[in-house]
Design brief:
Blueprint: H1 2-7, H2 15-38, H3 43-66, H4 78-87, H5 90-108, H6 113-137, H7 149-177, H8 183-186, H9 190-212, H10 217-241, H11 251-268, E1 272-279, H12 282-289, H13 291-307, E2 314-319, E3 322-328, H14 332-348, E4 351-353, E5 356-358, E6 362-368, H15 376-392, E7 398-400, E8 403-406
Parallel strand pairs: 6-7
Antiparallel strand pairs: 1-3, 1-6, 2-3, 4-5, 7-8
Helix pairs in contact: 2-5, 2-6, 3-4, 3-5, 3-10, 4-5, 4-6, 4-9, 5-6, 6-7, 7-9, 12-13
Length: 419
Amino acid sequence: MSTLASRWPLLAQRRPLVAYLMGIVTLDLVAIGFFATSAPYRWPDALMFAALMACGGACIEATRRLGMPAGVSRDLLSAWWLPVALLLPPIYALLAPILLQALLQVRVRATVVYRRVFSSAAIGLAGATASVVFHTLVPDVSVLSRGEGVPIMLAVGCAALFAVLNTALIAVAAHTADPDTHWRDVLWDRESAILDIVELCLGVVVAIVCGLNLALLVLALPPVVLLQRSLLHAQLQAAARTDPKTGLLNAAAWQREADTEIVRARRTGETLALLIIDIDHFKRVNDAHGHLVGDQVLVGVAATLRSQLRDYDVVGRFGGEEFVVLLPRADVSEARRVAERLRSRVGRMAVPVDDALITVTISAGVAIMSIHGDDLIELLAAADLALYRAKELGRDRICIPAVEAVPSSAPETVDDATA
């Protein structure tokens, strides 16, 4: 089974996820077969489809020249397959994502094939549904280009339907893959909602332009490519600040954010605390279960830390199994309380592996600005020394310089003594 899983990564996924993915792909294939045998074929439709796919291919080529590393996933390809759904029979809406996803796989970045296949199926089903609804409500789609309000509003509604269905299908897959994930984390956040609205508007505008005259796509293509490159550039900047395994700030980005907070705290006279957190005996996890499981533990610890901190706390991965947290406006008692809460919550975390659950503990060193140092280097050195002391005392505890570590069994209200 392990050999098959290495050759076919889909087999390594949870059974409910495998069943769901296969069900969506099967439904997509059935829909393709149904509409392929029932849809009329006309040369103008085929020409419009080819022109829209060529524009999509041009956007993909522009993406390829910038590069698209793992974790950068948003694009503006809906600007091309939304017009396909609105102006052409549903069969074209089912075929469009297959062509563009295959081009992404070959020309931009090869990823796990089953993910590309599922994405094509999800987009295709959402596009075909929007196409059927729009053609039912607007039998003569040429009225879309006449500037009449009702057809345009119906087109916007069907584009929104496409976005909702596509997001829902992908969100169900993400939640099935990790049932512990909150629905709000796999649906919309503010940024993704804004991007979906932009894609929706672009798709409707391109559909109107395409309906007016197919040659106008030559004028529509450069602005869409420019927006695509701007979006990708912003994502690349965000990816450069993020640790790819945990999604937290990487060390360089965290240091920049921390320096900014320290300068602000020094100017305003507010308190500030710094925590260095280390996963206890992490090497044993890697040795016993492998590095892939170790990565799952890192992701779980990172998610737990992030869920227990405020939005303006600065948390990052410092390297290996070490994490760093900056707590603006936190004094000694607040820093101790937060560190103990993080230690307790991580200790209750469990990562499922086969038929077992992996649990880990953390140790933390705490430093307070103006008490243990006045700049980032001094605070890091003081917190690192406290972390070393916590490990010496048996791990699974927190330690503050000049304050004794709190045993893992001690309640949060116990005061630290001199270390």
